[in-house]
Amino acid sequence: MLKFALFHEDGLPPWRPAGARWASGSSWVEPFRHPALEDFAATDGISSFVAVRERAASSPALGTTDLMVLTTADYAALKTQLLGSATEFFLVERDEYGDYHVHAGQWGTAPVYVVQGRDHVRGSWAYGDLRQHMRFDQLHHLTVTRILAGRHRYAVDTLFEPVKQITERMTADFDQVKGLTLHYPEAALHATPRDVRDGVDIVKVYERELASAVQLWSIEPERTAVELSGGMDSANVAMTLAALYPGSIRSYALTLGGEVGEQQARRRQAMIDFAGFRDFQVSALDWPPLHPNGGRVHGDPLNPPDEPYYEAVEQMLATAADRGITTVYTGDGGDELVALRGQEWQRSGRVPGRLNPYSSPPDWLGPRAAGLLDQVDQHLAPTSVINEATHLGFACRTPQFMTAGIWPLSPLCSPRLIRFGEQLPVEWRLDKSITRERLRHLGFSEDVVHPRLRENFVHVMERGLVDYGVPLVDEYLTESPLVDLGFVNPDRLRDVRNAVADGKIDTRLFGYLRLELGLRGLLG
């Protein structure tokens, strides 16, 4: 949501508007300016802050181009209001001693990375902005291992030791004695399943809670779209939007192609006809991962865990922006909203699948990475309000939206809706039963509610690896620092590469390639 540079200087004035930034001496804060967001600055003559937050439908707008001069009591009240915001926010404050405090909200919609320089602290939602502080000899080995093994974790650490992520509800302090210190919040509390009372229509309750979540924000419907892949999560968000803003919201999707694409197209058309969406599409198979004309291969300074389907999403967002779209509703968080937990998996006879944090690591990990596997769950952020997997997804996707000038909204991550999901009995969460039943109540056919084929992007990933990834493996392994440091076993990786000729594709190969390309884009 913002970028900043903070310096300790004597006699600084309160924050003042300076073009696209708020400035005070050498320090500046640059909010991401967008119709869905507002930013403002306030002072009580002692302390001052700059805040950027999502526009909430229930709160009056405070955005102003002028510094608000308040009494000490009103300043404290406004700060307290912001820290309790129901929507996403960031607040950068300088106190009476000249020390800085950066406060993060609970949503984590956009990541903010921070690094301490010689005499200042820099922060940005774009990881590549901080690449002058990144060196190869400062790789964070545990993060490297997590990326290669596909065991991503939500934590303050990033690919490079000096660069940290401000996680949800965190406070980052920059004082003149200790420098930069990061403070995790208390672990969030979560609810447990409850029985549904007799006579309660739980699907109607879900519909009501989802409508409330969708209406959290103040939006411009004519400039808003919804992701409509055909999955249960985005479909339910889309149907709620269509009912609230009939004829105003547009829809879009990355289309899959092949037999599964035919099913997707048929199901999506049923939804489009029902809702009256104006729709547009981009073929994912035309822009698979590692496409030579995509930004990843071209050397864009991406954080390696960024969107795996970066190339297709890049085309999709450009198409949306050309149509005047500035805000997109997503289905992010839907899997986590109704996921089984703990022993519920075993009792249901299911396995976690995509949400399994302990999936088997690839056998081409080198000795250094293999030796760190038992540490991947160390030094993690405390339990968050929104599921940790969702936060990882936000950090992976949101910067790409912002680069396109678009802000994503994810109502399935509403803390209130999350608490509702946590309290649902297992039978309503299993196989997303409640979301399917809601679509059935709306009159959709079983083809829409329970599609025969599984619709996902695995074949798109396989296309990218076969057509473009394998040649890159040959090129990179001849001079790979990941091999030199013992993170990758080159012989076993070549075996995986050679197996492609026999039709055996291990999509975990992408973990190696995304990291090699990421390092090249960041370090040059």
From TrEMBL:
Gene3D superfamilies: HUPs (3.40.50.620). One of its GO terms (molecular function) is asparagine synthase (glutamine-hydrolyzing) activity. SUPFAM superfamilies: Adenine nucleotide alpha hydrolases-like. Its EC number is 6.3.5.4. The keyword Cell wall biogenesis/degradation does not apply. Coiled coil: none annotated. It comes from Saccharothrix longispora. It comes from the Bacteria. The keyword Ligase applies. This is Asparagine synthase (Glutamine-hydrolyzing). Residues 209-349 form the Asparagine synthetase domain. Transmembrane segments: none annotated. InterPro entries: Asn_synthase, Rossmann-like_a/b/a_fold. Keywords: Ligase.
